[in-house]
Amino acid sequence: MKKHASFTLILLIFLGLKIHAQSIQPSLLTKNWTAFWIASSKETLRSYGIYVYRKTLDLPQKPSSFIVHVSADNRYKLYVNEKLVSLGPARGDLLYWNFETIDIAPYLQSGKNIIAAKVWNEGDLRPEAQLSVRTAFILQGNTVAEEVINTNTSWLCQQDSSYRPLAVNNTFGYYVAGPGESIRMQNHIKGWEKASFDDSNWKPAHALFEGTPKGVGASPYGWALVPSPIPPMELTPQRLSRVRKVTGLSIPSPFPSLPSAITVPANTKACFLLDQSVLTNAYPTLIMSRGLNAKVTLTYAEALNQGGDKGNRNEVEGKVMVGREDLIIADGSNQQTFTSLLWRTYRYIQLTIETKNEPLIIEDVFSTFTGYPFKNQATLNSEDPELNKMLDIGWRTARLCAFETYMDCPYYEQLQYIGDARIQALISFYNAGDDRLVRNALDLMDHSRLAEGVTQSRHPSATPQMIPPFSLWWIGMLHDYWKYRPDQAFVKNKLPGMRQVLSFFSHYQQPNGSLKGVPYWLFSDWAVDGKGWNFGAPPIDKSGHSALLDLHLLWTYQLAAELEAGLGEPSYAGAYKKQVELLKKTIQQKYWATSRLLYADTEEKDFFSQHTNTLAILTGLITGQPATNLARKIITEPGLAQASIYYKFYLHQALVKAGLGNEYLNWLTIWRENITLGLTTWGETSDVKTTRSDCHAWGASPNIEFFRTVLGIDSESPGFRTIKIEPHVGTLKKIAGQMPHPNGRIDVRYKLVNKQWMIQIDLPTNTSGHLLWKGKRHPLLGGKNSFVL
């Protein structure tokens, strides 16, 4: 019964995490806080360490409200009377250091209360996305009534010396998502969050200095405090699905879908492989008893592999497990519990156990899913079940790549890249109708800009990296926000940053407008069969020019001119339009290959790609029937560098713009290959068998295009004020769907009956638009619109 009680306790802790948006006392945003940043040492340190803090609070009665603000460097978990009430801080940078706001009144009681926090810093091994000044913790009461809980020397602190970092050296390719944990349970501080815990030997925390909100004075270390702009992350308990391999012991049949004790005999080496059935981001929890000095290693992987070939992700025989690890050394007591500090990404967990002179009892293994709390508000009803399967996989991919920021991938990097985030933002609009993480991404990238004008390619990131084409995608992402969200003030605030980006590029434009000598990494795509491509950068000719870069700049000038004309300065709009005309003329002269009726990647016309010709269509450099002819050649012409799963987002838009939209469902080969090979999220590259990451949301564009292209739902004016419906249903005879809109929901239904289409379109009230059907425009009003065409 103890194992069931422990499982229930863990669930209650996580389920008790209910955080509500609260008002912040205005003075806390304009004056120094009365709470201090506290630490275990006055020394400035950023080394690996885990620290626990306690504060006893006596209350005459249970309060109706008790609002606090909390942050830490690097991360924290906050408990009130044993209940987990907050995790954070949300990832940001030093000049915008987030704090969370929580009303802890529901967890307080009359009499004695224990406020406790675990704070940690993984030092040089911390995730690349985690910036740090030094390890510290701060908690501020919202008003004078709550200031009794402020962090200062009244808080007690102790380092938990049981932890050691486990560097991750055995994954495939670039890995910067943090170390594993090694914990010796004999040294582990247990029950520190409980009222019964004896803290008489703990030392008072050292007060460093007062908390400083952004824009107020100066701080010796930084941490310009700002309210977190995003909601708390979701925490949902989940069970693993099944056991796939076992050696050295027997596993009871209910496990792991239900708790069931597993006894590992003394002096035994055993191993078993657990399958979640789908990829997940979760905090794993292991509960075990006895087994003095036994070692339990948990290894996490997206898939097993054979010589670097992952093959079918459902298959495990003949393959090996390689990945991030946690190591727990048992102390022989009952109900020893391990939950990772930060979440892990896995489909498979392998437990490798080595006991000494005492049996070890595995009481339970389960996990708690976490991620940005997106709710899917979009549905698709089709006669083709494959479409819904793709939507499900794409939604899972998008969710696993969304935490406190968007992430390129959860297992390897957890970094917010602009190129990825633009696609992720559109998925958020089309599937969830939630723009908070989008605004956060646009803000963070704006903050990352260098003095020369270019943004960093990813942010937050401890190591700066510049990809100038991604700065152009930031402008594209800003334009998307303007197009789909009714928030002109936010966009207008970003126009100065947009101008700085374009000013950066203008320094490298020649008199004819063409770019030359642009510095940094010019990554555009992991092109397939990309002759002349260099580590993702497109071909550059002998004179230092690139058609793809010129076209990308042309497109961005077009988008920037629209933003300036709609919200900014007419003079900038005019200047950008002049650049558009100049670049159009130059690109046509330099790169059009009459012999092949294609745009070349270079002026020498020795390399050709889908990418360059894609942007030629999207920029309107070629239109009408010539564009349709070019689109057909993009698909069929041999010898072109092929767009990866990422760049197909742009390729497919170009093909649709050129009039081939009814063929969209024929272009999903790479997604079908992912499904055939057992992936439950979309892989990073088009080489599905050997791709590094099994989860990259830049490949989830069908979650946009099933609604934008197939159902035909798009914005017709800024802020989605009016709606354009232009379906491309291909050979389907019946399809319907709905998606969120700033004013409500859009619902469309198409059904072919006796060679006539029965069409019903429901728009939100106070919304209008047009149905485009076979070249004709039909007006749409708020409410139900029915057609027989």
TrEMBL record:
Residues 67-207 form the Bacterial alpha-L-rhamnosidase N-terminal domain. Residues 377-704 form the Alpha-L-rhamnosidase six-hairpin glycosidase domain. GO terms for biological process: carbohydrate metabolic process. InterPro entries: 6-hairpin_glycosidase_sf (IPR008928), 6hp_glycosidase-like_sf (IPR012341), Bac_rhamnosid6H (IPR035396), Bac_rhamnosid_C (IPR035398), Bac_rhamnosid_N (IPR013737), Galactose-bd-like_sf (IPR008979). Residues 712-772 form the Alpha-L-rhamnosidase C-terminal domain. This is Alpha-rhamnosidase. The lineage of its organism: Bacteria, Pseudomonadati, Bacteroidota, Cytophagia, Cytophagales.
